[in-house]
Amino acid sequence: MISLPSTPSPSSKTSASTAASFPVSSTLRHLISPPQLLSMWTPVGPFGGYHPMLSGLLPHLGFCRRIDPSASGCGDVLVHAFGAHAMSFFNTANVVTAVRNFPDYSGTAVGIMKGFLGLSGAILIQVYETMFNNKPTSYLLLLALLPAINPLLLMWFVRIYDTNEPEEKKLLDDVSCVALLVAAYLMSVIILDHLFDFRFLVRIFTFVVLLLLLSSPLFIVLRAGERDSPPSMNRSLISEEQRDFQEEDKYNLNLLQAMCSVEFWILFFAMACGMGSGLATVNNLGQIGESLGYSSFEANTLVSLWSIWNFLGRFGAGCVSDHFLHVKGWARPLFMVLTLATMSIGHSVIASGLPGALYAGSILVGVCYGSQWSLMPTIASEIFGVRHMGTIFNTITVASPVGSYIFSVRVVGYIYDLEASGSGCKGRHCFMLSFLIMASATLLGTLAALALFYRTKRFYSQVILGRLLHSL
Prior knowledge:
By secondary structure, this protein is mostly helical. The chain has helices at 10-20, 24-32, 35-40, 44-55, 62-67, 74-85, 87-101, 106-131, 136-154, 168-196, 200-227, 233-247, 255-259, 262-283, 285-291, 296-327, 333-352, 357-384, 389-397, 399-419, 429-471.
């Protein structure tokens, strides 16, 4: 989900980020739908959300007129929320399928899925600036049709395979290299574009290169399929034993059983602190830069690069935690402790208001915020099992909009209004107290994650590592 390059209203921006992180309906659908059918619900949101904007129906929504005839922004909020909510359907299907298909390297698989989701904002900005610059109506048509058509074409490939491929680690490594290359290329294009203001032909060239990079994972998979031999009887036996082992595993909890555990609420609280404060930061990044005297060019560069830092966190946390789990046997919640502690430092750096602090702080917060989106689903699948993973991790994801509301509205917004004069607020005092509060809250989240680490340390050493050894 990406908002239009024109500046949206604060209420519509909040509704979009909240709806995207509040996957209630996709959670309920996952209870009764396989991944393919779950993906079929994705087209409803973009078309239903952006079509009213495209066709000029916003002022005519009777629901809004009944609430308040003078509230022109009501329809904007409604359709932004409806459009953004669709992302959770395909996201749930992809994440659950990735964990089931790559049980030994679930962190890396989820990191790749979530990482490309984090890059999607920067990619769509390149689409807008190359093909739809100053054409918001055409861009709205793209946002209404492309996310609706794409799942219908690709949902047949989103399925669970009960096999154990010997070269799946190499395949994931190859796709990981492509993901890093795409992120590095996008970061270079964004910085150079802000410095030199690309001409149209240069934009076309950079966009074509981007499309080639995005399509390269398909060639990697096709090449791997041609190279692989038919599965042997030995691999089938291993797959059958692993499947029986997982089905008989007593650690596959349903949602109600998971909610009755202390680990569920510790994870929920830690995510409310980490994801909520991260969302509050990105939603106010431009305004923070303005209050600290950054130029519009510098503030726009910070916002544009957020997708890159978000990707690095999502992708890096999954790969690094997988590596240390296999090599050192370190429990994955330890990396949640480290990233939340680093995020607390990032908030403190931004609160200092020192020259260049917003650059360094936004990098730390962006990377660590993205890390939570790959660590949390993977940890949830390991602690509570994969059988009901979609419902459990989506329920924990509700912590993100809850925390975002608390920090964005009750902390940042409230304190900014107290500090601001009639013409706005200038100086480090505008956001200093807000970010010190978020740094303290994230530190509490770190302590909660530390408690989760100690509570699950024996479980990881006995059960999770046992599963990894069993699959060899």
